[in-house]
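To the wet lab folks,

You asked to see what we're planning to order before we commit. Fair enough. Below is the target structure as tokens, and below that is the sequence we designed to fit it. If anything looks off to you, flag it before the synthesis order goes out.
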């Protein structure tokens, strides 16, 4: 598949030249140049780029070329080297799910036969859903979803939240802490989704809390340097760090965090075998009876 066609598909998947650049790890001007070269080669305009408009719109020629480009992509991705007899999968997940929940699944995939080539990408939940909608991603793992007729959604598992702090001498890790006993000015805050934020804002005034807001757990570990500081994290984070930090239950905890698995209802033909292997690995690593609050 040509670089111009790859760029065109990334623009359609992302809905803008800027997002296409982020997906391909190139500048927006490079995306624009590649698209211009492709249109010159084809002798027609594929995308209506109206000045001031944030989102792109396909021209009739662009809609026709999209069907051809998607077929070329399927053929290209289906022509895997024999080493990857199970095909390939492009999987997207939010950062905390990629880092703390899915490694056992990916290890299981790497040891299965036939072998599946994995391409892992990190996105926000809403981006994952958009990219699956356009079949840029084959599967996704997100913590919030919206209903779509084109996307199949299944809860993978749910997790409790825990209070995370630096270890304290004599502090009982089995002690249950009431949220109102925590100083909101000392919070290292992560937005874990709408349900979590509804709980959070009922306890602490959103206008007076959290001197800092973060988007990854890795930032917490770098900024947690005083005993007074605290954060709230999912149980998979607790399982990962163990005794390196003090983890305690909350007496009035937020609702559990649910991780959802998403796939397109009509996936790429070349991805169907790989998706079946992924499903088998999920059933092995996350047995149905265990898909509950951890």
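Sequence we intend to order:
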């Amino acid at each position: 598949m040509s670089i111009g066609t790859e760029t065109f598909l990334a623009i359609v998947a992302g809905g803008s030249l800027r997002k296409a650049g982020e997906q391909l790890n190139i500048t927006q001007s490079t995306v624009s140049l590649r698209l211009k070269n492709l249109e010159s080669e084809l002798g027609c305009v594929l995308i209506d780029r109206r000045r001031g408009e944030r989102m792109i719109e396909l021209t009739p020629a662009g809609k026709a070329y999209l069907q051809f480009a998607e077929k070329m992509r399927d053929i290209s991705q289906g022509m895997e080297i024999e080493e990857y007899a199970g095909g390939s999968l492009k999987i997207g997940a939010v950062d905390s799910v990629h880092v703390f929940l899915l490694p056992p699944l990916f290890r299981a995939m790497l040891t299965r036969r036939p072998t599946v080539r994995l391409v892992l990408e990190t996105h926000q939940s809403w981006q994952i859903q958009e990219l699956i909608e356009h079949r840029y991603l084959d599967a996704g793992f997100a913590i919030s979803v919206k209903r779509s007729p084109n996307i199949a959604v299944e809860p993978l598992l749910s997790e409790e939240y825990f209070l995370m702090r630096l270890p304290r001498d004599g502090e009982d890790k089995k002690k249950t802490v009431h949220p109102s006993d925590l100083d909101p000015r000392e919070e290292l805050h992560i937005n874990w989704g709408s349900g979590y934020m509804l709980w959070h804002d009922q306890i602490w005034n959103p206008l007076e809390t959290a001197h800092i807001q973060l988007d990854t757990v890795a930032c917490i570990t770098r900024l947690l340097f005083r005993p007074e500081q605290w954060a709230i994290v999912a149980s998979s984070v607790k399982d990962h760090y163990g005794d390196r930090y003090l983890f305690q239950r909350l007496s009035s905890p937020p609702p559990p965090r649910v991780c959802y698995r998403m796939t397109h209802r009509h996936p790429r033909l070349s991805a169907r075998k790989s998706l079946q292997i992924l499903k088998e690995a999920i059933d092995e690593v996350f047995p149905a009876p265990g898909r509950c609050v951890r």
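Structural context that might help your review: The CA atoms of residues 17 and 206 lie 35 Å apart. The two ends are 44 Å apart (CA to CA).

Thanks,
Computational group
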